């Protein structure tokens, strides 16, 4: 794996590139210049950023207004505040009115660790999936993040991008090309399928390596594109597999595990699914990421333990 990169830094880099190539892009923040790491953009283009203060609803409404005025509006703040505090504005001003706004949910999942549930975003995918007229992405690697952001900026219409809060390394080769709706196939395997979303992709990759040392062959997939999603291809990857485990830093309802369960049910697949994430009705543990993931069994060790239990139960 290569050196790590922070997704917010990549976001700002792509914003600067977009303006330099003639795109009339305007970032809107809610007193979140530090969270968005937006200082290089401000230095490059003084006066182009709009800071509405601690007022997320105003931030989203302002972005929608800028979009109606012909700008490419991008909101940049913490995912829990974007999705929870400005829920109605996202639903109506952005999605229902199909305005050209790109919503960046920074520090998603439990990135804020010990700051606990007020700062955790474990329901953002489930909430945004309930809205129409919006594409939904959760990049896993720096290269993928760059390509998704470039695509979103050029795409006309609303986009939500779930951004992890920690620096992450690269998983893909230099020839990787992001395709909206596609499923990222990482390794082939015959005994079990492991599927990650965002930063949990690294956990499932590590888990597959550990299982391989035990003679167990795991197929590894990562889903970054939730809407659109090539369900036919996903069903093809799952077809004939007896066991599937999903791992997400999100509630088990409405996110990755739910999408996989929908495909299994709708395509009539004979696959046993284990969803790993934040338990139904629960909250993410208020702790550092390592401890939190171990507690919810979404670290590599927890995924391995669950895989072994699934594989051994019918022996």
Task: Explain what you see.
The protein is an alpha/beta fold. Helix 1 (7-20) runs parallel beside helix 7 (142-154), helix 3 packs parallel to helix 5 and helix 8 (200-212) packs across helix 12 (300-313). Helices cover 39% and strands 19% of the residues. The chain has a 7-stranded mixed β-sheet with strand order 2-1-3-4-6-5-10, with helices on both faces. A 5-stranded mixed β-sheet has the order 7-9-8-11-12, sandwiched between helices.
What's the arrangement of strands in the largest beta sheet?
A: 2-1-3-4-6-5-10
Strand proportion, as a percent range, falls in: 15-25%
Report how far apart the termini are.
36 Å
3D shape = globular
- Count helical runs: 12
Uncertain segments are none
What integer value in Å does the Rg equal?
19 Å
Main β sheet profile: 7 strands, mixed
Helix content: 25-40%
Mean pLDDT: 97
| Secondary-structure-derived class | alpha/beta
Number of strands: 12
Return the string of H and E elements. HEHEHEHHEHEHEEEHEEHEHEHH
Q: In summary, what is this structure?
A:
The chain contains twelve helices and twelve strands. It is globular.
Which descriptors apply to this entry?
315 residues; five-stranded mixed beta sheet; 12 helices; 19% strand
Provide the fold topology:
Layout: H1 7-20, E1 25-29, H2 39-44, E2 50-51, H3 56-68, E3 72-78, H4 79-85, H5 87-96, E4 101-106, H6 124-129, E5 135-137, H7 142-154, E6 159-162, E7 184-187, E8 192-196, H8 200-212, E9 218-222, E10 225-227, H9 231-238, E11 243-251, H10 256-266, E12 272-278, H11 289-295, H12 300-313
Parallel strand pairs: 1-2, 1-3, 3-4, 4-6, 5-6, 8-9, 8-11, 11-12
Antiparallel strand pairs: 5-10, 7-9
Helix pairs in contact: 1-7, 3-5, 8-12
């Amino acid at each position: 794996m290569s050196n790590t990169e922070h997704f917010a830094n990549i976001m700002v880099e792509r914003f600067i590139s977009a303006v330099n190539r003639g795109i009339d892009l305007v970032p809107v923040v809610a007193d979140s210049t530090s969270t968005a790491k937006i200082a290089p953009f401000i230095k490059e283009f003084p006066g182009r950023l709009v800071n509405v203060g601690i007022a997320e609803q105003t931030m989203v409404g302002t972005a929608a207004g800028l979009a109606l005025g012909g700008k490419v509006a991008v909101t940049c703040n913490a995912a829990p505040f974007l999705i929870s505090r400005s829920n109605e504005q996202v639903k109506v001003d952005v999605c229902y009115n199909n305005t050209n706004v790109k919503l960046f949910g920074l520090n998603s999942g439990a990135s804020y660790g010990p700051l606990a549930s007020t700062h955790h975003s474990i329901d953002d995918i489930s909430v945004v999936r309930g809205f129409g007229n919006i594409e939904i992405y959760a990049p896993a690697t720096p290269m993928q993040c760059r390509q998704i952001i470039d695509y979103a900026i050029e795409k006309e219409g609303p986009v939500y991008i779930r951004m992890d809060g920690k620096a992450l390394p690269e998983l893909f080769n230099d020839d990787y090309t992001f395709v909206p709706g596609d499923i990222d196939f990482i390794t082939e395997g015959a005994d079990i399928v492991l599927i990650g979303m965002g930063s949990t992709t690294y956990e499932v990759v590590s888990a597959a390596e550990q299982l391989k040392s035990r003679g167990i062959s795991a197929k590894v997939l990562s889903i970054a594109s939730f809407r659109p999603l090539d369900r036919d291809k996903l069903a093809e990857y799952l077809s004939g597999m007896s066991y599937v485990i999903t791992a997400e830093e999100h509630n088990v309802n409405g996110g990755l595990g739910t999408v996989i369960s929908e495909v299994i049910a709708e395509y009539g697949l004979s696959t046993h699914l284990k969803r790993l994430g934040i338990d139904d009705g629960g909250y993410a543990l208020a702790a550092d990421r390592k401890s939190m993931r171990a507690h919810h069994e979404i670290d590599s060790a927890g995924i391995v333990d669950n895989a072994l239990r699934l594989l051994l139960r019918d022996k």
